[in-house]
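W.,

You were right to be curious about this one. When I first looked at the sequence I had no strong expectations either way, so I just let the prediction run and decided to look at it fresh. Below is the sequence, 259 residues in total, followed by the output.
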Amino acid sequence: MLELKGIHKTFNAGTINEKRALNGIDLKLEPGDFVTIIGGNGAGKSTMLNAISGVFPVDQGSIVIGHTDVTSLPEYKRAKYLGRVFQDPMMGTAANMGIEENLALAARRGDARTFRKGITAKERELYREKLAPLGLGLENRMTSKVGLLSGGQRQALTLLMATIKKPSLLLLDEHTAALDPKTADKVLQLTDEIIRRDQLTALMVTHNMRNAITYGNRLVMMNEGRIVVDIKGEEKQNLQVSDLLKKFNIENDRMLLSE
């Protein structure tokens, strides 16, 4: 479902501020893989997600999503293959639009624009059915402005919007980092349920080692723009935080605060 081959990216090349962000990344995901990505600050985690989504061009290598080589495609042309949830709950939704209007935009992503009615009764009922399992009561507030929602409600809505049209690949960039612990746990549980139910292929960046171990069928650790650990199957199921610390010397990093 995703294949990265020899991905390199350097920012400010040839200057005093040169930063080698990705150094020959090779990664292959099979359909249904749920991969958690962990690593220190500056390890290249978010840069890799940005490279996949086309935020910037890579210097070298290829990116294939499904059977499509998207390496040279701009960000807006890759959008039809991807769903993405960011760290900031304010991103990914239109604050001045209602809940149902945001869902309608997400549901029609990639479709041709027509002059048909904005939101049909059938669509409205579908959105209620999608919102109800979140357990947040949003199905009873369909016309409420998204800007009035709490951070957790907004992030749960963003997650639903990112997956309402089953994407080839779901990218989760520390999507619970800005939430309080209780709300973060709720959003993570919802994430896991949606990925399992819809059999999505997903990459989830996190600084929390316990979450990286608990969720997904595979764990990747990055350091200095490289993948240094790739664990799956029974080895991941038996993994402990202490094992990760032994595999990778982590000092003065937020991960240590998130054990």
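Here's what jumped out at me. Confidence is low (pLDDT under 50) at residues 251-259. And, maybe more interesting for your project: The chain has nine helices and ten strands.

Coffee later to discuss?

I.
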